[in-house]
Amino acid sequence: MANTAQARKRARQAVKQNAHNSSQRSTLRTAIKAVRKAIAAGDKAAATSVFQSSVSTIDSIADKKIIHKNKAARHKSRLAAALKALAA
Q1: Is the distance from CB of 75 to CB of 82 less than 8 angstroms?
Q2: What single DSSP character describes residue 67?
Q3: How many Cβ atoms are within 10 Å of 25's Cβ, its own excluded?
Q4: Alpha-carbon gap, residue 42 to 36, rounded angstroms
Q5: What are the pLDDT tens digits along the chain (88 aa)?
Q6: Domain count, the chain
Q7: For the whole model, what pTM was predicted?
Q8: CATH number reported for the structural domain that contains residue 57 in this entry
Q9: Where is the signal peptide (predicted)?
């Protein structure tokens, strides 16, 4: 348990930040699932537009260092490959 005022404050801040980061990660997962669902439906136009917005979300979350930049790049690459495979 935190013994000093500083440690108690940091503990409060950690709880708040954890909740915010969890929310951001949930947004990330939702964006990825939306692209996967659009690709599964087979609608290339809709999948492309959802992919563009998802890339923006992924980049934003990576810039905030909630996920690592390489993880963001991996997600974008795999989604792009799936979208390209849909066209073929």
Answers
A1: no
A2: S
A3: 13
A4: 10
A5: 789 999 999 999 999 999 999 999 999 999 999 999 999 999 899 999 999 999 999 999 999 999 999 999 999 999 999 999 987 7
A6: 1
A7: 0.86
A8: 1.20.58.110
A9: none
